[in-house]
């Protein structure tokens, strides 16, 4: 033979440039004793000869190459053959080219063989191969060899992954099988049955027609593992059984294989006494050690401020088995209760709630904005280690200050809104939904980020160069935006600076929007063709509700009307504070993330941890100590990663312990009547807030006739496609007009609302963040369905009725 044809048994991995990657690998495996069908390779030299140096020419079969093919071993030539392309750039770790080149099966006779080889050559110039090559940074496909092998008369065939291609787990083999030849499965013409083989045990994971037996599944898994061991990396193999034997048809690295999950390290589960609930808000996954070390103590030290007007001491946080649990802490003993009564009386007499809200509007918000802006603008990379440690200390001090402010204002705003709600119920008989109409629609941090984003969209809409560039946000970020429109680029940079440094997830591990500018540009692009948000309309709706209430009060005594007007002013000032303060709490979370990441960058650069994100597997104390002592923390990181993985797959129960009995027992009405008037009043206000909003939480219940039920949180009806968004990492999935389905939202999600048609959540109530935001944007919303994210799927069309609290599937 010559350099146009080469027996497969005479090639090895070093010949990939001549025979293509597929043939080179199979030749190496054949020589290592693997069951590879015999054959020959038509080398890339023959491909070059066919092109005659002109890649634009039509590919024909040169007479001398045809003559060589006619001379191959009759024992091979006279059988049914499988003819497959084998390109030099095929079957690589980052580009498999799977299914891109041509395969021709059941080839018989000289004429069919020549045609099959020529067709394989021509496939190198197909549109799909060219597109695939360009998507991987290559101008066109590489030179193509052709592999000619004996056709295996398969009774069953398929592929197998020596590691799980979805989870990355290396301990199990995933086997797919169909009856007959495997190409039926690869082309999508047949649905495979799937087996998982682990520790010598084979289990069928999907329904099927019994294409293979359990013994055959184990044999395929063993072959896949042996191929992986030989080639030194997880492999995707193609295989076939004839009547007597298992054959190996192809082997290539598994592309885009996730990192293997860490080895699980069990965590002792020590349950404290009392009644504990798992913290489901923020506990979709276990807290990272970094978050726990910073925020658990802060929550325990500050959250009690929320309960200033109640007989609760606060909320305690504990980690149990890697998950965060909370319990309501009652006041301990009569002395503590009487002390709280005196505090409530003093707070009501001094109008402490209004003092805090007024002070926030007058000075507090501006002072906090100044502090956070100064820390946001620090160039962390320019600090030496000592300066970075000082910066971290300042940020951590701010965390505690901001959370104390947050929870004090939560208590004050809740009291003033509750005071107003109680008054409106007594004077007008209105429920909580009607009361909220009197408060929604004013300016605040709920709408400010989205309004600023809408203004960016309005400007972009009027500038063709920007509009065109936003079709490809990543190109815009590479410098094209500043070149196309410097003014718009400056406006966009200002938006990122002012609104996008907030934490938008439940853990420090999640990126801020400032770290994902392409996503923000995508939101601007999506809003360009949506109606502009009219803040005037929101205020008009509130004014109409106020006018309606005043009309109903017209015949009431003047003192009632004055009480209403005074309480309305106070409640309208207090209502937006809920999310205004949360804006700065989230911004502080972003500042913590940035400081911790800078620690991680330095530790990774000094090889004390493997990568910067590993810093989140340390506590803040451990990270600071590592920066100071220079010692590696890789072993600790690996253990923490294993502990977190164990916790993830072993979530604790929703509750531990039994709910406590009511406070004090006996005749509660009698005890209540003995309290000072101010304490009775404060407890009635607190009772209105808890009872009204708890009753408005609703219950998910079972779906009825395919419909989900929940809290009717924002009126209106909308029909559109579902988009399930779990967290900020999936914001990019959302399309204008989608029905946003999510576990829960926070104020940081408000930038999505101008694009959504309706909102459906698993949890929440009428005073929750998603309800507030939905009402502000007049988006129909149904909350607290309990199971929307598990029941609904992307693209499914539903009708959301925010008046009745029903979500129905549209057939």
TrEMBL record:
Domain PEP-utilising enzyme mobile positions: 735-805
Pfam families: PEP-utilizers, PPDK_N
GO molecular function: ATP binding; kinase activity
Transmembrane segments: none
InterPro entries: ATP_grasp_subdomain_1 (IPR013815), PEP-util_enz_mobile_dom (IPR008279), PEP_Utilizing_Enz (IPR051549), Phosphohistidine_dom_sf (IPR036637), PPDK_AMP/ATP-bd (IPR002192)
Key words of the record: Pyruvate
Alphabetized Gene3D superfamilies for the sequence: ATP-grasp fold, A domain, ATP-grasp fold, B domain, Phosphohistidine domain
Top-level taxon: Bacteria
Domain Pyruvate phosphate dikinase AMP/ATP-binding, residue spans: 58-199, 209-258
Name of this protein: Pyruvate, phosphate dikinase
Species name: Actinoallomurus iriomotensis
Lineage of origin: Bacteria, Bacillati, Actinomycetota, Actinomycetes, Streptosporangiales
Gene that this sequence comes from: ppsA
